[in-house]
Amino acid sequence: MKPKIEMVKEEILSSNWYVLKKMTFKYQKRDGSWETQAREAYDRGNGAVILLYNREKQTVTLTRQFRMPTYMNGNETGILIEACAGLLDKDTPEDCIRRETEEETGYRVTNVQKVGEAYMSPGSVTEILYFFVAEYSSHMHTGRGGGVEKEQEEIEVLELPFEQALNMVENGEIRDAKTIMLLQYAQLQGLFRPVSKPQHILIAGPYRSNTGDDKALIEANMRLMNETALRVYEMGHMPVLGEWYALPLMETAGSRQLGDEIFERMFHPSAVRLLSFCDAVLRVGGPSRGADEMVRTAEAKGKMVYGDLDEIPVLA
């Protein structure tokens, strides 16, 4: 049932950093009577938080930094271990958490999965926090991280075994609510269970790039991708190349040479269409705008991107 509220007065008590307001209002109780109440509410905007996990290594990536409010309330060092988080500002939750992840941890993740949202301190703070998880791997690391110096951030990045992180919750070494919630989510949802289902993996590599349309070099590129596909198949998954679909389709459509109108109309677009039916992309070989496009498209669709065969779980 929606409560009946009549606002009486709104006062700004502080706007030094964010906004602290005193709200005086009339509230109709269940018995129908009205009561005047006053509450203070701190508005710092909404935020997002993410748990980065690596299924193969059985690890999570967290941060460690000084938090003054905890120092004021019993935390002798003021140091807190947390999942990466930040305020939305004017971004969407997804864009915010991608930005914060790279700034704080140095990982550039795109395939983020929203798992919930919550008011973290509804008695006094207006903030809604959006919760995400994302799988990370070594090829996503940009070499940066540690926070933004102009925002006075000094952040240490921690990579911990998942079981150790759970134990740290139990023994009180991890006391941050949002981090505890995400670690428990990972435990309940079995995020660290090995992949038991074969994946449909698109092999993305150079076809014409840097070949000058030399047939021998193009054949070498195809041989590399086909050999990679065989390795993926032997690992228990189902590989596919965009070329396996595009080349016979283009020939049937009447393409006569590389780069003609039919080639341009069908080669890359068919691979993009194929990607909708795949679970992941494996990027192989040298520079290729087409292969990089497949990676970007896969990331935008929330699919896993592998940078090396060693990152793919072995099922067979």
Structure write-up:
It is a single chain. The chain has helices spanning 68-71, 93-105, 162-170, 177-189, 215-234, 242-253, 261-275, 289-300, and strands spanning 5-14, 19-28, 34-43, 47-54, 59-66, 79-82, 84-87, 113-119, 128-135, 156-161, 200-204, 238-241, 280-283, 304-306. The protein is α/β, with parallel strands linked by helices and 316 residues long. It folds into three domains: 5-43, no CATH class; 47-189; 200-311. The strands form three sheets. Strands 4, 5, 6, 7, 8, 9 and 10 form a seven-stranded mixed β-sheet that branches. Strands 12-11-13-14 form a four-stranded parallel β-sheet, sandwiched between helices. Strands 1-2-3 form a three-stranded antiparallel β-sheet, with no helix packed on it. Helix 6 (242-253) runs antiparallel to helix 7 (261-275). It starts with a strand and ends in a 10-residue tail after the last strand.
